[in-house]
Amino acid sequence: MPMRYSPSAVVVLCLLAVMLVATVAPAAPTINGAGATFPEPIYALWMSKYYELNGVKINYQGIGSSGGIRQIEAGTVDFGGSDAPMKAPDLAESGLMQFPMVVGGVVPIVNLEGVAPGQLKLSPGLLAEVFAGEIMYWDDPAIRNLNPDIKLPHKAVTVVHRAEGSGTTWIFTNYLDKVSAKWHEKIGSGKTVAWPTGVGAKGNPGVAAYVQRVDGSIGYVEYAYAVQNALPHVSLRNAAGEFVQPTVESFQAAAANADWAGAEGYYMVLTDQPGKATWPIVGATFILVHKEMEDAETAKVMLGFFDWCYKHGGEMALEKDYVPIPENVVAMVQESWKTELTAGGQPVW
């Protein structure tokens, strides 16, 4: 004959069961991050898949690299994201560690009727002149001479740039600063610059959306945004004198010879690299964390996610047109976690 329990006993047993589950399997903390929009498409995919597999919630707000750095320095997020790497002295002053998460390409995108992706050729000098406002119409002789097979309209050039501090802008202007003496003298490079012309838009999504709706416009975005929005990119002449298209292979070529072991604080710039197959505007995007963390459990959960991304996120990165970080660099990063990241003075990895 089965045992029977009074209603009050059933309630007690249920409470005990709930307490036992809570003791055995505490809920994982939610991890919050903010920063660069450059890697947001792959971060979103990784976070969704990780939640599906492990039930761990990772939130990330694409607010731009400057915002990501401000928030991690202020301690309002668990990690920040930036495409513009911080130099070692600045990391030390802020008590931060940075490490690369993925590599991608920045591409100029255009909205010109009848121009297919990769059809329009631009030299480094011409690209700088367009974004400096020195070339005002698309049928300018210098552009026509480089593109004799394209019927270019007499249409005003509308430059679209980032409105906020941006790592994508840092990568793009770092390139222009290297390849154009006039750009170097008058404008320079940074997460923000004094643009001589154009209109500002927020984030990679904002630049892509603006270019998509304005005929005659040109902007710059991480390559995934160009693909997602079906926006024509330009073909660029690289340091070897070859006109190349943005592809995973051309991004990999740019990153191939990077000396990560010699990069203090993992500070690495990948623009205007040598090689016939190299896309010239490539950059790594970085994660920023406090070296001394407030909560050991949160730190372990967060690093567990990044570890999973390194080990299992490579194919997803390639599908989104990013380049995974090489395994030898991942090994270096994880050794740094062991020696540099602590909570309560104790290692967290």
What is the CATH architecture assignment of the largest domain? 3-Layer(aba) Sandwich
The SSE string, one letter per element, is HEHEHEHEEHHEHHEHEHEEHEEHHEHEE
Cα separation of the termini? 54 Å
Q: How many separate helices?
A: 14
- The backbone outline, from C-alpha atoms, is elongated
Q: Uncertain segments of ≥5 residues (pLDDT<50)?
A: 9-14, 17-25
Q: Quickly name the level 1 CATH class of the largest domain.
A: Alpha Beta
Q: Class by helix and strand content? A: alpha/beta
Strand % is 15-25%
> How many strands?
15
Q: What fold name stands as the CATH topology of the largest domain?
A: D-Maltodextrin-Binding Protein, domain 2
Percentage of helical residues?
40-55%
User: What is the mean predicted local confidence, pLDDT?
Assistant: 93
Number of domains: 2
By CATH, the superfamily of the largest domain comes out as Periplasmic binding protein-like II
Radius of gyration: 24 Å
What summary fits the major beta sheet? 9 strands, mixed
Keywords:
349 residues; alpha/beta; D-Maltodextrin-Binding Protein, domain 2; 2 domains; 9-stranded mixed β-sheet; 3-stranded mixed β-sheet
